[in-house]
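pinging the channel bc i need a second pair of eyes. not urgent but kinda urgent?? the chain im working w is below, pasted from the shared doc
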Amino acid sequence: MGSAGLNTARDKMVRAGINETAIETFAHYYRLLEAGETGMIPESTVEPLDMERLVDVEVSDEDGAAAIAKTAIIKLNGGLGTSMGMDRAKSLLCVRRGLSFLDIIARQVLHLRQQYGATLPLIFMNSFRTSDDTLEALARYEDLPVDGLPLDFLQNKEPKLLVKDLSPVSHPRDPELEWCPPGHGDLYTALHGSGLVRQLIEAGYDRVFVSNSDNLGAVPDARVAGWFAASGAPFAIEAVPRTPSDRKGGHFARRRTDGRIVLRETAQTLDEDLEAVTDLERHRFMSTNNLWFDLRAMQTELERRGGILGLPLIRNVKHVDPSDSSTPEVIQIETAMGAAIEIFEGARTIEVGRDRFVPVKTTNDLLVLRSDVYDLGQDFVLDQAGDDVPFIELDGSFYKHVGEFDKRFPEGAPSLKEAKSLTVDGDWTFGHGVRVVGNVELSADSAQRVAPGTVLTDG
């Protein structure tokens, strides 16, 4: 028997048709929450982590091709892009040449299949709110589905809990707001509950490559696949060096007690440890959320643990309606999929180039992706035009939401390949053929227009 709050939450999940594995996983974390678990990882319990680099690894073409042939691809695609003013899958957003994230991902995979003569199944983990739109958009790619395997499976959902007593929140005005996703750590719960791990093994696949659908740099790479296969590791994550703009993000460290690698998120950091956490010389590497895991190792661990990997808890406090601070405070129980690295003995990390980490979380990122900083090759892989990606900061009052952003770049993104940074304060609309060179700052108290063909410089 559980507490009254847990029993109420269980009943609510059963009525919503949520599978038993997901309910038991939620109950596991609910009990941790009741016991006062915070999920914090003190600095005193970890030490810095160093790692090998992909550029130093030797993988033959034959070994890479053999490894990629036994690889399945999963793209996390549950996000609605609400922070950018969207109400449907972010991956439907137009990126380049009239192509969306989904278009480019599909074409990347179809090209790789042809290149390697491999099946490379592509499977999306969708949410209940992104599945229909995603499958409709992918219907044009008739060769994309692989016989015997689904094109998607669904992420779970769980009740938001009132901070005051851990009971499931009620919000009759918009019942959808009573629910939240359990974080991308739900990947493993959803895979187990759907039976997809066993299905992939039976279909002859050895490993899975997982990445976010909003990261077009995360192409299934034969060289990385070959390295992972040769390593014998059960689990691995691609990492990149942290930059000043990544100070507040999660990072890798090594746990002192058992030597295992951990991924510490900002929400798991004590206030007194913030200085050490933001020290880029001490904690040098962050996750790309590009993951590789051995299917049999994952199946063994999930079955041994009854479908509950036991990832570290992330206690996320928000308002039931995130856009309305007058609504009650709630706890969202979350986990991070990269945190599974500490579950597997012998797990590895490898430093990759920043070209494998091109996430789009804001319209600042979207502007860079739509600009000439990147070329889109015949293989639909992003090629970075220059050595560095410019820093972009657009005024959130005018550019935060995609609709308003698009109005201010009606002729497309300016040229940014010669830019180091672009900071826009105020309401500026950009004409056709604008070039940004060096470090540029624009500021205005009223609406302004940058004339077509203008060259903006730091002079």
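so Residues 4-356 form a domain with the Spore Coat Polysaccharide Biosynthesis Protein SpsA; Chain A fold (CATH 3.90.550.10). and Residues 101-116 form the longest helix (16 residues). — does that match what u expected or am i reading it wrong
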